[in-house]
Structures are given as structure tokens and as C-alpha cells.
Amino acid sequence: MIIQTINLTKRYAKLVALNNLNLNIEEGECFGYIGPNGAGKTTTIRILATLLQPTWGEARVCGHVVGYESRKIRPLIGYVPDYFGAYEDMVVQEYLEFFASAYNITGKKRTQIVGDVLELTDLTFKRDALCDSLSRGMKQRLSIARVLLHDPRVLLLDEPASGLDPRARIEIRALLKELHRMGKTIIISSHILPELADLCSSIGILERGELAYHGSVSEAIRRARVGTVLHVATPDDGERARTLLRDLPGVRSAEPQDGVIVVSLETETTDFSFIARAMLDAGLRISEIKPEEVNLETAFMRLTRGVVQ
What does the alpha-carbon distance between residue 239 and residue 260 come to, in Å, rounded to a whole number? Predict the structure, then answer.
């Protein structure tokens, strides 16, 4: 395991930010960390980044124990917080060279590495721009460029797409996919669930400091799927259609919602052709019948209880 936590707990006075968290993340995974504000995501990431000490329990990064071997961990990780550091008076290249020197990267090697990460993050054309003049999306890419200078094995990204416009989010997602293809282990916390579903190989859902789910995206969606739910639309009398559908054998409920009838079938029902047949026999036209999409957002809502700290 490249990341492992064993009964990891963090208390702030009476507040329990993390409660016996047990995580196992394999090398090369892109792990999505999901949860409401105050769930403990940032606390976990800061502990893994050696910026916080656990109250008890243990966190290991690349086999090294946080707290006891933090000096060995830091060269192996890259931590991107959800805000950009205050370096307004530096230009982009100077900013990267400053951090490269902190990792004892000097001379021609430093020039080469800075050029490489600028190219990788598509910031070469901004190398002479002041950091403070960059858009939020470019600042996030610069933050990622900074943590790639020393070629870390693990990237810890805390809400990297927060506050970005749609184009900037797409660009950040494409960059993270490329880093994943390069073999980096990535832990990313985010509230933008569809993007995590597209990006991550596994997810963890945290609620009130406890892990509600840990596994693949497909398994989370499978667990969230409860029977078959159909969205049925008709240009005819909606109330008549609802009453007809509600009384059919195999139908648990039929309720109007946003211009369609949401039909919930019995769990064992997989063939729903009888819905169309019954409506046509009753003289009702059909404009749409489609199964309800179960995605990561649906899974999150069904696998959590909606409680916060």
C-alpha cells in the first residue's frame, strides 16, 4: 500500500474531525475523496502531507509513518491546498525556480525541469507573467506545476477545481488524467462528483469523520441502485396516466415530478415493456420512457445520511 491509515483519529477539543479512519490506497490509483464540508477530508489530506499530527492511530505514506518519519515522506509527496500561496511579486518562472531550489535542484537541471513542468501544465506562454496576474485556473495549474518539480510519487490535491469556470475545470481534469497515465498516485478531494466519476479509479465517501464507503465508482453506483425506476412522459392526461400506471401489477409507485411520471417497479421486475403496452391499450401516447440514471451523485446521496459536524 502506498497510502494506509489505521484507526486514524483527529480531535480538536470536543470535535472529532476523524474517527478511526481506515484507508488503503494502492500505488498508481486515482482516489476520489468525497464528503460534505466539515466531513474531515482536508484534515486527512493535511495529515498525509505531514502538516498535522493525528490524535491517535497511524498514517503511512510510501511505508513511512507520519510524525515519526515525516522528513522521509515530504520528498515523496506533492501537496496542493485549495488556495494559492502569496507570491504576487514573482513571475511564473521565478516562482518555479524558487521552489526547485528548495529541493536542491540546481543549474541546467533546474532550467530543464522548470521548462518541462511548464510544458506539461501548458503554462509555457505565461513563464514571464506575474503570478498575481494569472486567472484562478492558471494559478491552480501553476500550483500543480510546483509540486511536480521534484517528481513526487503521490499527489495530494485538496479541491483543485473549486471556484473554476467550466473550461478551467476541463483543463485541470485533462492534466490530472495525464498525470495518472504517467503513474502518479493521486488523492483528490472534490465536490464536483461527475468529474470524479470520470477521473477516479476508486473513491472514499466520508461523513462526519467516518468512512461511509470505500471502493470503486461502479460498486458505489450498484449499491445505490434500488430496483428499477422509470421516467415516463406523455402529452396526454398526466393524472390519468399516473393512475393507470400506479395500479399496474409490478409497480410500487407512480408520482409526478418535473413534467414526467416517476415509476418505481418492484425489485424483481426487469422487463418493463408492459408499461408501454398498458398505456397504448388505454389510448395514451408516449413521448418518453427511460430508466432513471444512477450516477455518483445519486450514490453519494443514498450512501450518506446528510449529517455534518
Answer: 11
Task: Please count the structural domains in the chain.
Answer: 2
175 and 168 Cβ atoms separated by less than 8 Å: no
**CA nearest to 109, candidates 97, 118, 121, 120:** 97
Cβ contacts of 78 within 8 Å, gap of 6 or more: 144, 146, 147, 148, 150, 152, 154, 155, 156
Q: Can you give the CATH number for the domain in which 266 is found? A: 3.30.70.100
Cell numbers describing residue 93 = 518562472
118-129: pLDDT as tens digits? 999 999 999 999
Q: Three cell numbers at 66?
A: 507520519
As beta bridge partners, residue 58 has 6
Q: 12 in a domain, yes or no?
A: yes
CB contact at 8 A, 236 and 66: no
pLDDT category, 303, cuts 50, 70, 90? confident
pLDDT tens by residue, 258-289? 889 999 888 667 788 999 999 999 999 999 99
Residues 111 and 16 in one domain: yes
Residue 82 phi, psi dihedral angles, 5° rounding: -85, 15
Beta bridge partners of 12: 15
In the beta sheet, which residues pair with residue 61?
A: 3, 64
Domain boundary among 223, 255, 278: 223
Backbone dihedral angles phi then psi of residue 130, each to the nearest 5 degrees: -65, 140
